[in-house]
Specification:
It is a single chain. The chain is α+β, with helices and mostly antiparallel strands and 194 residues long. It has five helices and seven strands, in the order H-H-E-H-E-E-H-E-E-H-E-E. The chain has a five-stranded mixed sheet with strand order 2-4-5-7-6. A two-stranded antiparallel ribbon has the order 1-3. Helix 3 packs across helix 4 (87-108) and helix 4 (87-108) runs antiparallel to helix 5. The longest helix is centred in the middle third of the chain and has 22 residues, at 87-108.
């Protein structure tokens, strides 16, 4: 990562008109790729297992996405629920699910008025769970396929987001499942052992 930063400094100095060049566009793609690899590395390490209120985690993620103009969300859960996990890894996974739901809903809004994105959570005797339910464009070609590095239906995306989420959940001894029970929308579900 430091080498990429050094390279950026050198390119800006040495390439005339860098800010309006194709070089800048390709270099930003390279930075995004290495950023995704860095996130994948982070997703494979547990730093701190802690107790936290799931409703506040959901609210924090929704606020961050609202600041990025990524839509609004409805929360339906049992209120204040204390969960145990590496909160940082769970937040990384949940933010990705919310971003995907937001992008899918935004894409669907060009042809119809989709319903609001819903975030819900709960627990059983053996596990905790959080689900993001959207009424977006659905999974299309991804429906039923395994999550693989570089696999994406989105133009210009590296296909690393769901791979990072999958790794984070495996690190938490949990799982990620995505389904599209109807032609539209998707259910993004995170589960991990208590």
């Amino acid at each position: 990562e430091p080498l990429i930063g050094l390279l950026e400094v050198k390119i800006k100095k040495e390439v005339l008109g860098y800010d309006y060049s194709e070089t800048k566009k390709h270099f930003q793609n390279l930075q995004n790729y290495f950023g995704a690899i860095s996130c994948l590395r982070v997703a494979s390490q547990i730093i701190q297992i802690e107790s936290f209120d799931c409703s506040s985690l959901v609210a924090e993620c929704a606020y961050e996405l609202k600041e990025l103009n990524k839509g609004t969300f409805s929360s339906i859960g049992p209120g204040a629920s204390v969960y145990v996990a590496d909160r940082r890894l769970l937040k990384m996974a949940l933010l990705n699910g919310l971003k995907n739901a937001s992008e899918s809903t935004e894409q669907a809004s060009t042809s119809r008025e989709p319903k609001s994105i819903v975030v819900t959570w709960g627990e059983t005797e053996i596990e905790y769970w959080i689900a993001v339910i959207d009424d977006g464009v659905g999974m299309g070609k991804m429906n039923g396929r395994a999550i693989k590095i570089g696999d994406s239906t989105k133009t210009g995306h590296f296909g690393m987001g769901l791979t990072i989420v999958k790794q984070a959940m495996q690190t938490l001894n949990g799982s990620l499942s995505i389904s599209s029970p109807n032609d539209t929308g998707a259910v993004f579900e995170l589960r991990w052992l208590r």
